[in-house]
Amino acid sequence: MRRLALVIDDDPEIRELIAVLLDEIGFDADLLADGIAALEVTKPYDVILVDLNMPVFDGERLLEYWSLTQNDLLQRVIVLTGYSRFTRGRDLPPIFATIPKPFEHRDLLKLVARCANNEKEVNP
Amino acid sequence: MIIDGSSDLICTHDLEGRILSVNAVAARALGVPRDALLHRNIREVLLPSIAKGWDDYIARIRNTGSASGSMVVRDAKGRVQTWEYHNTLGNDDVVSGIARDVTDREAAIRAMRESEERYRSIIENVSDLITIIDADATIRYSSPSITTLAGYTPAEMNGCSFFDLVDREDAGRAVEFIDRQIATREASTIELRFRHRNGSLRYVEVIAKTLRRGNRVAGIIATTRDITDRRLLEAQLERADRLASLGRLAATVAHEFNNVLMGMQPFTELMQRDGASRKTAAKGAWHIGNSIARGKRIVQDILRYTQPAEPMLRSVNVAAWWNEIEPEIDALTSNEIAVVTNFADEELSVLTDAAQLTQVIMNLVTNARDAMPKGGTVTLHARRPRAGETFAFGVVEHPQACVQFSVSDTGCGIPADGLQQIFEPLFTSKPAGNGLGLAVAHQVVTRHGGSIFVESTVGQGTTFHIFLRSGGQAPPPVVTIEKTLSAPLRTRKILLVDDEPTIIEGVGTLLREEDFEVSTAASGEEAIGMFDAFEPDIVVLDVGLPGIDGPETCRRLRATRPSLPVIFSSGHEGGDSTDDYTRYLQKPFAMNVLIDTIAELEAHS
After folding, report:
1. What is the pLDDT along chain A (124 residues), one digit of tens a residue?
2. Which residues of A touch B (CB under 8 A)?
């Protein structure tokens, strides 16, 4: 049974890379380039990967927005943190995890698997 | 009478043309034996076209007793020859002729005429105007193109001044140009405006070359090309370019602001929903405020570029300035990026608008950061270049009067084709860049009267170098210029020894203005080396020389001349003058103090 992931990152290479990695461990991934396209989440994603730096609606805004509209999404979110002068030192809403860019592929996949499994454990 | 020894062609004939006698030279020239020529008719050797004029020739001979001119004959081999003849009629109706073969000369003249015509036709048919003018710019020749270019015929312009063609506003430059041209052997070029007879302006490019006969100026050849169309095209392109860059700017601004506005919109919608909570309002407002701040930054960037503030230049201590801005620079970078700095030199001060310099450095560090998404090292430092130092990346004038700031990264580097445009506004290789960061940096540095350079190797990193004038305690030697009116000194030759080039230059110049003969040395070794040849009356000696120091240099010089007068100059409090030949001056010293000290030493010697 394939599982479902959402990847939101403005860097197309990173989006594609993550899609390929996820595919190998049994995930189908939807890819979006900016938070502005992900305001209304309708599919039951097992995991959502969000980049912080995006030109229009950055990761932090998106998480805040979801916290006001679809708060239960946050527990499935893994944030990819690069450098950012805006978010460093600021608290993000409670989410599943953060992973700094650049990341080891192994570490990301481990985190994705745990996130997806936790979800299943909490909501069988 | 026939003289065989002559080199001329000689023959006699009767009025019918029958050949009565002929000399060997003529027979040889025609390639026919002498005997065979006798009693033949001379008309047979003439070209048929020439033979037609026979009756006229005989008529002339009869009427005037002589005829001369040139005739064309064909020899036995069919070769055509031109003979110049002078024939006279004798009493017995016998014509004596003497002639000379001028075939070669004729050919040479014809060839010259042809080549002259060829050149003339080239000159008269090129579209460029060719004029030959005297040293006082009087036109001696102008090619027919002058009619197209200026509306006058060559004949009308003959004897006029070349400057009459030039528009009044450019006349001064044209006069200078011709004056300069006369003085040089090289061809030189100038762009001028000609005033056409119909009143219109023509943009022209003039290439002038001086013709010389020995040392005398025989004239100037000026080749003038109409570049009006090129100029108009350039102006058009420039306008198009400006429009295009305006268009790019508008597109960038629109794009950036669209991002800002779209970032706000979802929150305003949330806040407008029925039953929106206080929490929603607070968070929404916070993010909207954030977007507004972002919009303001973009506006500032654009304004900073399009309406740059005049830099308020003050002398700023580099170390203190860096301490103040370091936290801001740190905040720009992430944990993956190491920042290495060296602004430790407390002496370093720079003439700058500190806020603008900070902006420039922040822009460069931001770029460095963006060039290293996977982390790396940013190196920042400031230093004072040495006098005469040269740099691989460009030419810096008076480097010793500058402070050099460098910002390096270990990032992706910039390809060579991108380097040329890197300071152009709106040139960006970053998806999120607005292309103004480096343009602003370039603009600020330029308005400071400084220079900015970039060097980059793809895959290794990029370094920006900024040169600004150093400030404050302006280059160490402050030599007060006060001309002295003391009694003339006997001292004539001064050896000036200092390792600081600015001192050598400054004090040396002032001493020369006082009519001293000055030699300079940058070290003790150099001073000792030139001492014997120069034979100075007095030595002005820096105490703190590298290598052999001042006192040691003095000792070695006095080994040969024990009573050599020496003035020690030193940055520190001077020592005591222990004898009549030695004095101490503390730097910086005024010129009159130095002169007085020289006078004082003279008084004791």
Report:
1. 899 999 999 989 899 999 999 999 999 999 999 999 999 999 999 999 999 888 889 898 999 999 999 999 999 999 987 654 444 445 678 888 888 877 889 999 999 999 998 754 333 3
2. 10-11, 36, 39, 53, 55-58, 61, 64-65, 67-69, 82-85, 88, 100-102
The residue type at B589: F
| Rg of chain B, C-alpha, whole Å | 45
What residues of chain A lie within 8 A of the CB of B279, using their CB?
Answer: 68
ipTM value for the complex: 0.74
Residues 6+ apart with CB under 8 A from B206: B177, B189, B190, B191, B192, B222, B223, B224, B225
Contact at CB, A101 and B279, closer than 8 angstroms: no
**What whole-number distance in Å separates Cα of residue A50 and Cα of residue A75?**
12
Q: Mind giving me the DSSP string for B397-449?
A: SSGGGEEEEEEEE-S----HHHHTTTTSTT---STT--S-HHHHHHHHHHHTT
Interface A–B counts its CB contacts (< 8 A) at 56
